[in-house]
Amino acid sequence: MTPRQWAVVALAVLLVALAALAYARVPWRRAPAPRADQLDALGRLDAERVARGRRFHAELRPARYLAMAVGLIAALVLGLTPAGARLVELTGDHWLTRAVLGGLLVILVTELVTLPIAIWRHTVVVRYGISTQSWGAWAADLLKSYAVGAVLGALVLAGFFTITHFAPDWWWAFGAAGVAVLVVLLSFVLPVLVEPIFNRFTPMPEGALRADLLALAERDGVPVRDVLVADASRRTRAVNAYVSGLGPTRRIVVFDTMLTEATPDEVVSVTAHELGHAKDDDVLTGTLMGALGAAAAVVALHLLGSWTALLDLAGVDSIAEPRAIGLLLAISSIAGLVAGPAQAFVSRRVEARADTHALDLTGDPETFEAMQRRLGTINLADPDPPHWEHALFASHPSTVQRMAAARAYARGVR
Ligand SMILES: [Zn+2]
To answer: What is the Å distance from ligand 1's center to 405 Cα?
Structure first.
């Protein structure tokens, strides 16, 4: 068999494995709670608050779609015209400097064209009191995330183009394996290495709440090493909690905003949801699906690379040379747009399962509903967003869907 035939076989195997994993691990049949319960929940929310949440999202909407459109147009211009190749050529003649500096330059351009929209967005979230960040702190966060992105990006670019340089026929095989390993590594390393760059974590002081949360985890059969408080109030009023790490490093993290804004019972309820993710190994499933998807994408890129019309548009000889970075970006932007709604759908189903876990573990649908109402209010959610927008982008069930799930649960509907 030729390398190309091997690539076709590898792509088929990866896609079948991805489909099998998704079939086995995603709770596909977990439909949202009845609409009647949702409307009932909506009616119990403070009308003034609902209107404010809707106004907030109506103001954010142009920024969101404009950023998507501008980002896509920039990627298409850089990838489907010779502009991207020219930009990479500016960084010298050596393939490795082109790969790293040229790649970072192309990514920087796409970041800079959407920067004005990010600034506009920040003015809105500050005006609505969600963000508590000054412009200085906001800019510092932005620079930090650019720095993290540049370090990671440089490593990935150098690794990828070293492989394509030294294995021109088989790079897709090494690249697919490498990117799969990278996804797994990042998923476990990023929380430990990158989170501390943005937030400070301190152990929750001894007391009733800490003891309750540890006892909850124990009862759930999900041992955790520690309960940490993150100083999220430095930048936001939004409340949240999550469980990160695996096995011996697993920890519960609660935003400090949660401790001042929610009752201890509600913190327990949110934590029970997070333990559901840990218990069902949702992070592991997501990581494995991401690794298979990324590996399949690399092989698909290799196959797309024989489409000469595409290469001609970008003015490159091969999809695997550093001058084709713009083209790679354009293709991945399009792929991201297509894959986004599918990822959101899977995420909503998984989140709904964690909600059911929280209800089962606490046996307290009233507190769960109160907590959802509070989360929605403080985070200024649109409790019942437009159907199409929810379907395309939402990573979680809506506030009224989650409240309705608690009501259905209380009636004995599972
Ligand atoms: Zn969740």
So the answer is: 14
Q: Which two tokens stand for residue 2?
A: 């030729």
Distance, CA 271 to ligand 1 centroid (Å)? 9
Structure-token pair, residue 161: 């183009």
Q: How far is the CA of 402 from the centre of ligand 1 (A)?
A: 11
Structure-block tokens of residue 152: 């990671």
Q: How far is the CA of 272 from the centre of ligand 1 (A)?
A: 10
CA 274 to ligand 1 center in whole angstroms: 6
Centroid of ligand 1 to alpha carbon of 245 (angstroms): 15
Render each residue's pLDDT in the chain as its tens digit; 414 residues. Answer: 888 999 999 999 999 999 999 999 999 887 788 899 999 999 999 999 899 999 999 999 999 999 999 999 999 999 999 999 999 999 999 999 999 999 999 999 999 999 999 999 999 999 999 898 999 999 999 999 999 999 999 999 999 999 999 999 999 999 999 999 999 988 877 777 888 888 899 999 999 999 999 999 999 999 888 899 999 998 888 888 888 876 777 888 999 999 999 999 999 999 999 999 999 999 889 999 999 999 999 999 999 999 999 999 999 999 999 999 999 999 999 999 999 999 999 999 999 999 999 999 999 999 999 999 998 888 888 999 999 999 999 999 999 999 999 999 998 876
Report CA(197)–ligand 1 centroid distance (Å).
Answer: 23
Find the 91 Cα to ligand 1 centroid distance in Å: 43
- Distance from Cα 352 to the centre of ligand 1, integer Å: 8
Task: Please tell me the distance between residue 73's alpha carbon and the centre of ligand 1 in angstroms.
Answer: 33
DSSP string, 37-100: HHHHHHHHS-HHHHHHHHHHHHHHHHHHHHHHHHHHHHHHHHHHSTHHHHHHHTT-SSHHHIII
**Distance between the two ends of the chain, CA-based, in angstroms?**
52
H/E element holding 205?
A: none
Beta bridge partners of 242: 253
Q: For residue 50, which of 384, 357, 302, 345 has the smallest C-alpha distance?
A: 384
DSSP, res 101: I
pTM of the model: 0.89
Q: Which of 89, 66, 395, 38 has its CA nearest to residue 240?
A: 395
Strand order in the sheet with 201-203: 201-203, 226-230, 251-255, 241-244
C-alpha 231 to ligand 1 mean position (Å): 20
Cα 250 to middle of ligand 1, angstroms: 16
